[in-house]
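Hi R.,

Here's the chain you asked about this morning:
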Amino acid sequence: MNNYSENEIKVLNIDVGDVEMRLKKMHAKPVYMGQRTISTFDYSDSRCHKRDTLIRLTEEGTVKITVHINNSALDGNRKIIKLHPLENVDTCKDFLFSLGLQEKTRVTAKRSSYEMGKIDFDIDEFPVIPPFLEIDVEKLDMPLDLLLHDLGLEKKQIVDCGTEEIFRMYGIDYYSVFLCRSSINNVSKDILE
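And here is the predicted structure, written out as tokens:
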């Protein structure tokens, strides 16, 4: 279990092909190319959402559970707890269901991840919104403005917020768009027995 504060930015509305070409020219190594499924969980009364806490289960080659505390905070007060790598998605869902949580949303999105030294780059392509680049700036060993220039992104909008907030910036409610209709009373039979 890792408990830490993320230090990352997101660059909105990118040209994926151009960014990938520039990353390769900068000798960034591809580390993951594929789909990932992201589910959010909450209680039936939405108490986590009301407290600005997000519980997320992500399948991306491995499985992880992430808890985001002060999820919409834009001032560095977000706290993140990650549990990974976990056994498998069904066991994780059963665990969350046993706590009384329900699967509220589910989305599958394309992700392309690169590493350059200690810097992580994730290109996310969600349905409904333009693609964006996530840069982990925690271990950035060069000025951010120079990195953005080298990536051809110096004129793009940069934000420090979660994916759900990005959807809100486009006038879209993430929780409505990716509502998991099959989540109602979705408790594993094994848990009930």
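One quick note: The longest helix spans residues 16-25.

Cheers,
M.
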